[in-house]
Amino acid sequence: MVSDEDGKGYLSRLADEMEAVQLRMGAELLGHAGALLGNPKTEAGELRFLSNRLVEALRDALRVAESRGRRLPVPEEDEDDGPTQASGAFG
User: N or C: which end of the chain has fewer CB within 10 A?
Assistant: First the structure.
C-alpha cells in the first residue's frame, strides 16, 4: 500500500508532474490557436482539428482544477456568520 496523505509521496509527485505536462501542453496549444485563427487562409479542417484539441486541453485543465480543489482544506464555517472569507485585495 502506498500512503500519500501528506501530499509529498510518490503518487502526489506523479500527479503533479502529469498536471504540469497537461497545463504546459494547453498553453502551447493556445499559441498555435492564436496563429491559426489569425491566418485568414486557415482551412475548415484545420479549425476543426484545433477545436478538438482545445476541447481536450480545456477538459484536462478542468480536471486539474477539480483535483487540486479536492486537495484544499475545507474552511471552517461559523454557524452565525456563514462561510469565512479570505482577506485580500477584495476583502
Answer: N
CA angle 70, 87, 64 (to 5 degrees): 25
CA-to-CA distance for 44 and 52, rounded, in angstroms? 12
Element (H, E) at 53: helix 44-71
Rg (the chain; Cα; Å)? 20
Which helix (DSSP H) or strand (DSSP E) does residue 77 occupy? strand 77-78
Residue carrying the nine cell digits 476543426: 48
Give the β-pairing of 82-83 and 77-78. Answer: antiparallel
Q: Helix, strand, or coil here: 56?
A: helix
pTM over 0.85: no
Q: Poorest-confidence range of 20-24, 32-36, 70-74, 80-84? A: 80-84
